Write the C-alpha cells for this entry.
Amino acid sequence: MKKIALIIAIIAGKLVSCLSRIVGTGGTSLPGKIALKLYPQILNHLSANISEEIFVVTGTNGKTTTTNMLAGILKQKGYTFVHNRAGANMITGITTAFIRATNWTGKRQIDYALLETDEANVPLLLQQLHPRIVLITNFFSDQLDRYGELETIINLIKDAVRDTDIELVLNADDPLVTHFKNDTGLHCWYYGFDDTKYDRVLSEEGREGRFCVFCGQELYYQRFHYAQLGKFSCPECGNKNPERNFTAYSLNLTPKIEMKVNDIEISSPYQGFYNAYNILAAVSLAKLAGIEDEIIQKAIAHLKPRAGRMEQFNIDNRIVTLILVKNSTGLNQALSAINTEPGRKTLFLALNDNVADGRDISWIWDADIEQMTNLNSNLEAIVCSGLRSGDMALRFKYADAPVDLIYIEDELQSGVKKALSVATDRAYVLSTYTALFVCRDILLKLQQESVASTDRFGEKQNSSESQG
Amino acid sequence: MAEFIIAHLYPELMNLYGDRGNIICLQKRLEWYGHNCCVEAISPGGQIKLNQYDLVFMGGGSDREQKLVVNELVHNYNELKLEIEVGLPVLFVGGAYQLLGKYYESSDGVQVPGLNLFNFYTEREKNRLIGNIVLAASLHGRPFTVAGFENHSGRTYFEDEDLKALGKVISGFGNNGQDGQEGLWYKNLLATYLHGPLLPKNPILADFLIETMMNRKGIVFKGGLDNCIENYAHEQTKKKILG
C-alpha cells in the first residue's frame, strides 16, 4: 500500500509539474505541496536514491549562488544530481526538485542532492532526510517579520543538527556562525578569507553579531571584510575565528573575481565580495566531495551569473545590470559594486513587500544608501518602482539625493523604460524577489528589440532622449 | 541657526529593524529647516545628563539586550521622570516602549520589571503580531493617520484609564490586538510598536517632535517643507492596507 501511495504522489507531482510548465506559471512549489499532502514521507523515500552525498546549504545570503556553483562543478565532473533552483528553497520546492529528478516509480539512482534550504525549513528537512553536510553561509537580519528574531532561527537550526552525525561547513569569518561547533559538538570544517585589500578597519554596517555569543562582551575586530564578517576576537573569553580548512587569499574583485583557495587558482566572471564568499563555499564543498582541482577551476571559470546575480543585458549599446536585493547587506554590497564602476549611471529600484520579499521594508533604512549620493557616484537618475516605490524614494531623499533626480513609477514596465530613457553610460536594475523575473522579462524583451533594430538599420542610431 | 542634540540611547544594544530611519529623519528635517542637529550615541555605563538633550530616542532590541538596558536606565529613573514631566520630546519604539511600563514578559516567561514610569504592563504570547498598520490619531484637534509596520510578541495593556494611546487602530493589531489602541502619547513622549521608518512617512509626527524641540529653545516653528514624497509613501502604505 505504501508503495502505491508513493507512486500516486510522484505521478500527481509530475503531472502538476508538467501542467504548470505548460501554463507557464512558476510551479516550483505546487507539485511538491500536492505530493507531500498525498505522501508526507516522500522526501524520506526519494532521498534514499542518492548514492553519494546530500549537501544542504543554508544561511541568510548566498545560498542560491553557492549551490548553483557547486551544481556547475558536479556537472563538469559528470555527476547526476537533484538541485532545487532559483530560490524555491522551502520544503515544498525541495520536494518538487526530487519529484522532477526521479522516475515514475521513484527508484532512479542519482549521485548527489544539492539543497538550498530556507533557514526556518532546515529542521523540517532534517526530519525527512539525512545529509552528510550542512553548510552555513552567514546570518544577517533578513525577513525578520516571517520568523521572529535571528536568535530564534539560529537556535532552531542548532537543535535540528544536534545529536546527528552531520558534518558542518561553516563560515569562519561570521561570529554568528562559528559557535555552532561549541553548541553542537559536531565535526566542523571552516572556510574564510585571509586579509584582503578590500578590508576595512571600521564598519558602520549591521549591528548583529557584534557581541560575543558566549559572554556578551563586545567583540574586537581587527578587520572587517564586510558587515560582521571579519577577523574578530572576544577580549573577555577568547572566542575568535577558528582555524580554517579552506582559506582564500590574494583576492582581486575587478574586473572579475580572482583568488586562491588553498593552492587552487580561481577565476570567475562574477562580481562583488559576497560572490567571492559564495565561490569559496562552493569550492570547499567540492573539495570535500573529492573533486579534482582542474575540474573545479574549469567549472567556476565558465559559470556566468544567473537571473539577478549581476546578470548583464545589452540594450541600445548600453550595459544594463540586473541585481537581486533582499536585505540591507545585499543592497550595500550591490551599491558598492556599482560605485566601483566608471561613468554616469542610472539606478532603477523595484521594492515589493509580498511575503517572498519580506513584508517589512524597514531594512532599506539600515542600508548605506548615503554611499550613492556623494558627488563621485555620478548618479543621474534614481527611478523608484514596485509596491513600495514611495518608501524607496523617501530613503533616497533622506540620504540627501537631489529630489529632482528621484522619479516614482509604481509600474515596473514604465519604470524600467523611464530609467533607460535617461542617457547615461550604465544602468542598474535592482529588484526584490517578486519583481525580479518581471524586470528580467522586460530587459530581455528590450534587448531583443535593440538587437532587431540594430539588424534593421545596420547600426544603432544614437538615442537622443534625455531625462524629463 | 540653532544647534540640536539628539540622544540615541544604547544604539549598540537597541537597534532592530531600521530604527535608524527615525534618527535620520529628524536630523535631515532639522537641517532642511535651517538648523544643525547632531546625534550622540549613549553607551551603557552610568548617569545620562538628560537635560542636555533636545530629544531622546531608543529603539527595539532582543530579550537579552532589553534586560541590560533596564538595568542601565534604572540609574536614570528620577531624571527621566522629571524631564518627561517638563516636556522633553521622547520617542521610544518597540522594546523601548515596553520598558516604560511596570513589567514585561521575556521569552522564557519571566516577568522582567520595567521602569514603572507608566501604569501599564506587557505580557507575551507565542504568535507575533506582524503586518502593516494604520492608526487614526489627532494633534491640536486635527485628525491625521499614522502608517507603519508592527512586529511584536508583546501584548501591552493599560491599567490607568487616563493613559492616552498614540492612536486608534484602523487596521492592524496595536498594543495587544484587542482593545484597538496603539502606542502611548504622554505630553511630548511618543512610544509605539511601529518600528523602523515611522517618522519618514509620517511627517506630521516628525514635525510634532521637531516643533516641540524648537519651542523649547524659544524658536518659532514655521513648517513649510515639501512633503510630496513623504505623503506619497504614506498614502501608498495606507492604500495597500485599506484597499
Remarks:
- Chain B touches chain A at residues 11-12, 15-21, 24-25, 28, 62, 64, 68, 128, 130-132, 149, 151, 153, 195-197, 200-201, 226, 229-230, 232-237, 240 (CB under 8 Å).
- Residues 59 and 93 of chain B are 5 Å apart (CA to CA).
- The two ends of chain B are 43 Å apart (CA to CA).
- Chain B has one domain: 3-242.
